[in-house]
């Protein structure tokens, strides 16, 4: 088994092979929250309120599974390493659960959505935690951690492009036959095992810097006492919620508020294509100003640009496309920089606790991500329902429903983003502090 010293600088092929599994994992995440709710509502006549409740319940289950799998990811070893072995063992469940949820039978209902959603949530948690911990430990150098994150998140965006192109190309009008969401099911069940095996073959296992082992209770105690993590986690939750609200409402905003059905796919494609271009800009900006300051500036710009969407209405597709491109560029910062800051936060904990617990920290990270997505669905869908918004095809929406949709989509996200900026602008763990921590770990 190849063990990677944490200060070793890696060649580009290592980052390339490490990033490959992010493509099928992205093809799981995006449809689950953007396409699955509207697809199940339209195809199986399920109310949006019930779908939102199911998604929120699944996230509550994650409150238990995330810390357990994070703790196991730091403890379970195998002949090929604790990160690679635990990651490979998860792939069958994740791939099969995605296939089940994205290619439902003709008589599927709320129970199928709930069972498939729970299985997929457990599987992706099991897959992503050792995978992201693996990436956080590939390098101990401040800026190279941004490169690792950028490769993974850039590949995630490529997977997102496929995830928004294939469903609309294959059609979402009916749950019969090989529809667009079923195309995603085939892609995931094929590519996830293949890319996972390639990554385990070509990417080395990081060294474990632990000098002691903590119980789960001790681990959680150290985590909750880690002030930089609490600050970063709060900012990440606020910003993720701000991003999840428009993601949950995107299809309805385009088809109903802009009255532009058929433009959902091209607009999402432009958004994620711009985000791919934004990732190298984020890498450059972080090297110039530091990770937390570059991220904060990007959030300020996003608030300013996205607020314009609230003034758009029927026929304003061109203006909305411009907003999608600019905010897509800024999404590259949201994706590349916070996980790299998280890797530095883990160093802070390792120095104080004596155990390198990247798995547990990314379990908390994963839970925050899922909670933000579920909160968005649990908050905005009931409000839309109370405002009289109808998901019935061909139903004419009244002015109150459309205005509520516009406010939720464009202006609600600004408040949590501003709070996230306030938390991160003077973040204490900068390049100098991270280098000091690495010196303590080396000693």
Can you offer a commentary on this structure?
This is MFS transporter. The chain crosses the membrane at residues 12-34, 40-64, 85-103, 109-129, 150-169, 181-203, 229-255, 267-287, 294-313, 319-341, 362-388, 408-428. Keywords: Membrane, Transmembrane, Transmembrane helix. One of its GO terms (cellular component) is plasma membrane. The protein has 443 residues and is mainly α. It has a single domain, classed as Growth Hormone, Chain: A, CATH 1.20.1250. It is built from 17 helices and 2 strands. It has a two-stranded parallel ribbon. The radius of gyration is 21 Å and the shape is globular. The protein starts with a strand and ends with a helix.
Shape: globular
SSE ordering: EHHHHHHHHEHHHHHHHHH
Number of beta-strand segments: 2
The assigned CATH architecture is: Up-down Bundle
SS-based structural class? mainly alpha
Largest sheet strand order: 1-2
CATH topology: Growth Hormone, Chain: A
Mean pLDDT: 88
Largest sheet: 2 strands, parallel
In DSSP terms (H or I, runs of 4 or more residues), the helix count works out at 17
Instruction: List the domain count as a whole number.
Output: 1
Summarize the structure.
With 443 residues, the chain is mainly alpha-helical. The chain has 17 helices and two strands.
Notable features of this structure?
443 residues; mainly alpha; Growth Hormone, Chain: A; two-stranded parallel ribbon; 77% helix; globular; disordered N terminus; transmembrane helix
Layout of strands and helices, then pairs:
Blueprint: E1 3-4, H1 12-19, H2 22-34, H3 36-44, H4 48-75, H5 82-102, H6 110-136, H7 144-170, H8 180-202, E2 205-206, H9 216-224, H10 227-257, H11 264-289, H12 291-306, H13 317-353, H14 358-386, H15 399-411, H16 414-424, H17 431-442
Parallel strand pairs: 1-2
Helix pairs in contact: 1-7, 1-8, 2-7, 2-8, 4-6, 4-14, 5-6, 5-8, 6-14, 7-8, 7-11, 7-13, 10-13, 10-14, 10-15, 10-16, 11-12, 11-13, 12-13, 12-16, 13-17
Organism: Rhizobium terricola
InterPro entries: MFS_2, MFS_trans_sf
Pfam families: MFS_2
